[in-house]
Amino acid sequence: MPVPVMVSSWCSWQRGMAVRACGLIIFRRLQPAPSSKVTDSIEYLLLQTSYGSHHWTPPKGHVDPGEDDLQTAFRETQEEAGLQASQLTLIEGYRKELHYPVHGKPKTVVYWLAEMKDCNTEIKLSEEHQAFQWLKLEDACKFAEYEDMQAMLKEVHQFLCSRE
After folding, report:
1. pLDDT recorded at residue 30
2. Which residues, 6 or more positions from 64, have their beta carbon under 8 angstroms from its beta carbon?
3. Which of the ends of the chain has fewer CB neighbours closer than 10 A, N or C?
4. Quick count: other Cβ atoms within 10 Å of Cβ 144?
5. CA neighbor of 111 nearest in space, from 76, 138, 85
6. Which residues have a Cβ under 8 Å from the Cβ of 135 and sit 6 or more positions away?
């Protein structure tokens, strides 16, 4: 008999818990035209989900037991986009948490910023996604329908501009 009580208690506890996910905002720098600013050559990777409303998002996913947040971000990027940690450079000084409700539960998503070492590296999508796009800031904000995601992309771009 103790098992159903434990499961029932666990389910009640789980319902109230915030969902936690982690991911990477991935960008690449194209060779800028001689007359353009360096920041004009930055493109962001967004993946389109193959479920629900088919929204566009950076690679991200739920934290597995025993993982730290950054391990999750790299694992999810490898699973969803086929990119290994060795193909990316983590950019120091940027970490952002977004908080929003999903199916009535609070969700926290932690993002870090990473640059592609080779801008021509192939993206290999998992079954969770049906398409990907490399987008300049303005288009990335159009594809990312959620205001907090748009604000984060603009913040990332400002952060990168300030480092130039």
Report:
1. 87
2. 72, 75
3. N
4. 21
5. 76
6. 43, 44, 46, 143
